[in-house]
Amino acid sequence: MMKAITFEEFGTPDVLKLAEVEKPQLRPEDLLIRTYAAGVNRADLTHRKGGYGRPDFGDSTLMGLEIAGEVIATGDAVTGYRPGDRVMGIVGGGAYAEYSRIDYRMAMPIPDNLDYIQAAAITEVFVTAHEALIHLGKLTAGESVLIHAGAGGVGGAAVQLARATGATIFTTVKAANQEQARLLGADWLIDYQNEDFAEVVHKATDGKGVDLILDFIGAPYFERNINALAFGGRLIQIGIMGGIDNAKIPLDRLLYRHLHIAGTVMKSRSQDVKHAMSRRFREHWLASFANGVLIPVIDSVYPLSDAAAAHRRMEAGLNVGKIVLKMD
Question: How many other CB atoms are there within 10 angstroms of residue 112's CB atom?
Fold first, then answer.
């Protein structure tokens, strides 16, 4: 048996309880992990509220999608890993527990200079940011990018990747968090509560616009995003936190400026696609954590037994960086 977070009904963070459940069973392509830390993600809040029903994402029906820990056993089909290895990765459920299982193709080694808490703050946000910014967004050195929510998890990771790529970075971030975004590498800080980002971009680029935009908000920003893109610009939609109703698109701008729009959500993709996303990030960026070019940003750490408090902090929008659960 093992300790894990469970909940009998959907609802507020108070439904989360620490309980004894069975350990996961090893499958041929699994690593069995002694989990030491787990990242908290917005998908966990949706899970708790019932947005997914009672899902089995492939690895567990328990909550949690991001782990860091030690390999204690390997399946018969596993290559490249052995007991004792330190690994991190994205799982299909089950991170909020003392033990978890992960498809070995979704795992990656933890750089020697990082601890388990830091490792638990990497994979979900940086894999997502790489996919949007580099794989789909095709960002290259010398281009300009507008990253919304630049002090958040994925947004902050994207700012770091854009800086390492050699781009000029605009980001929307409230005044209280602007210093954090600046430290991560942002060049232009836009207070979205008091400034119109499209106007700031227009003035700063002499009306040209930016080459790429990463957006989490959705309908409230959609039209302004299109108007802020340069000729041949790309908009990558990776969230709809502001909703989808009444999204307006200036079709003439889309047509005559040869713009490109794409959307991406990792959780709903096939396992093969997820393997490829993890592999692309690992090959491109993992060494950058070992040499300090990239850093995980930790907001706060809670014991597993206090997962409810971690959820309350994220739900209130108080975190700047990653919230991590540490196994009791």
Answer: 7
